[in-house]
Amino acid sequence: MEKEKEQREEAILRMALQKSGRLHDDSLKLLHEAGIRFSNGQGQLKVRVNNFPLELLFLRNSDIPNYVRDGVVDVAIVGENLLVEKGDDLEVVLKLGFARCHLALAVPKAVDYPGLSWWNGKRIATSYPHTLQKFLKEHGIEASIHTISGSVEIAPNIGLADGICDLVSSGSTLLQNRLKEVEKLLDSEAVLATRPGLEPEKQKILDDLVFRMKAVLTAGNNKYVLLNVPNDRIEAIKKILPGMKSPTILPLAESGWSSVHSVIREDDFWEVIDQLKANGAQGILIIPIEKMVI
Ligand code: PRP
Is there an atom of ligand 1 within 6 Å of 173 CB? Predict the structure, then answer.
């Protein structure tokens, strides 16, 4: 029993993060908001968290799926696009809602694109050969794939390829290189991924971490709302604002009025505000929520 306790106390979860790249900053921000405290000096690649059984390893993005698979690390924050390409045997534990982008096929702007058949016999440059190969096969397209590890967007301009398959986020890279998107292969966002069959003591730490991350992500998707309402409109307002259980209703000093407190989803925000105003609500305050446990 004592030994088990010791083992439990010693257990540590190892997490891979991008050393640099589109996920790096938001990954650190999420960990910080989840109360994970550490100091990573310039260029430090391995960091022990001070207040949670977690060790962080800052690794090259494209190597991360292999490290998770081989057990060098237990979990990782990576783009779904990378999992599809190199880690489809790994498990997505939680979608993290940042670094949203998609993988797309693009051609030079001047091309009069008739549809997928255009790609037959063409050369396509990409850093995602596996995902592209699968897509082409599914659509019965015979094309040659040129795998390059970066600056894919330059390939058509230097005669290396007829088109590209690359990540698109804002679209500015395509625009700058006089390319246009013609087909979408998949949507992607940052995810927390692990390998199947994690040891129970590590799984417990992962569950604790996921609980914290969910509290941060749920809070980010919701707002706290306070408003003043004439008492005869409370029932109508309650239908618009169901709240987590039901809204809090407190009497105001001015008779005939109440203060209503509730939580609304960020996505419903403007529609809900319009309905509240239409029902006589006044003095509407919207407040960000730091953490939310449901
Ligand atoms: C991707 C992709 C493009 C760019 C597209 O590169 O390869 O270069 O982002 O983004 P945009 O639509 O906002 O312009 P990433 O930054 O992931 O780095 P990479 O070149 O190492 O893939």
Answer: yes
Task: Indicate if ligand 1 lies below 6 Å from the C-beta of 171.
Answer: yes
Amino acid letter at 77? I
Domain endpoint, select from 198, 219, 240: 219
Two tokens at 21? 């790249």
Give the distance (Å) from ligand 1 centre to CA of residue 150. 9
Amino acid at 135: F
Q: How far apart are CA 119 and CA 128, in angstroms?
A: 16
**Tens of pLDDT along 228-277?**
999 999 999 998 887 777 899 999 999 999 999 999 988 888 888 899 99
Contacts of 245 (CB under 8 A, 6+ apart): none
252 in the same domain as 167: no
pTM confidence score: 0.86
Which of the listed residues 169, 170, 176, 185 should we mutate to test ligand 1's pocket, taking the one with most ligand atoms within 8 A of CB?
169
Q: Are residues 280 and 151 in the same domain?
A: no
Q: What is residue 175's three-state secondary structure? A: helix
The domain in which residue 226 lies consists of 222-288
CA distance 17 to 25: 10
